[in-house]
Amino acid sequence: MTFNLKTPLSKDDIRKLHVGDVIYITGTLVTARDTAHKRIHEYLAESKKIPFNIEGLALFHCGPLVKKTGNEWIALAAGPTTSMRMEEFEHEVIGKLGVRLIIGKGGMGEKTRRAMMEHGAVYAVFTGGAAVLAAKYVKRVRDVLWLDLGMPEAVWFLDVENFGPLIVAMDSHGENLFDRVLKEAWDKSSRIFEEFKASKAPSLL
User: Fold this and answer.
1) Same domain? 130 vs 189
2) Is the dihedral of CA 9, 12, 15, 21 positive or negative?
3) Number of folded domains that form the chain
4) What is the value of pTM for the model shown?
5) What are phi and psi of 91, to 5 degrees?
6) Is-catalytic flag, 173?
7) Which of 53, 175, 176, 178 has the highest count of CB atoms within 10 angstroms of its CB?
8) Of 20, 143, 126, whose CA–CA distance to 71 is shortest?
9) Which of 37, 41, 91, 173 is catalytic?
């Protein structure tokens, strides 16, 4: 199914999504890569106040290319980065900061999957190699924090319209599209191997 969603996202918005669904998102995306996740973890560990509120928003694993023109920032490219690099910290971001949608590429691990089930969040993938296309959906760079981390590692608040298509790859019900595809591929290869054995192919004897 296809869903057009707007931030802030509710738990009900998320619970109705399943792996394979297509999302187009309008509202606010917040970028965060490795260093920003590590800083969030440090703030939480030290009980320091995080200087932004991302509850109900979409977190984008992205290091955008942004240009400043006058007093405004313009997004030139905004493609996803490999999400597994954030696996160590993502369960905290979901559980303690209230993020509902995570966007990236390549999938995430078991800690994130459990946090999504418990708190109501999903992980969706955006096509890699389409960073310039992604930037076209950014209508405004609303804010930036932690710019001391560098442009790609800073936390950017991007106002987007119909950002997508995003494919739900991990849902709040514990399903994982990557695991499903891997299992189907393994089952298919096993069947092919058994068929070759049954036909007594000379190369396998």
Assistant:
1) no
2) negative
3) 2
4) 0.86
5) -60, -35
6) no
7) 176
8) 143
9) 37
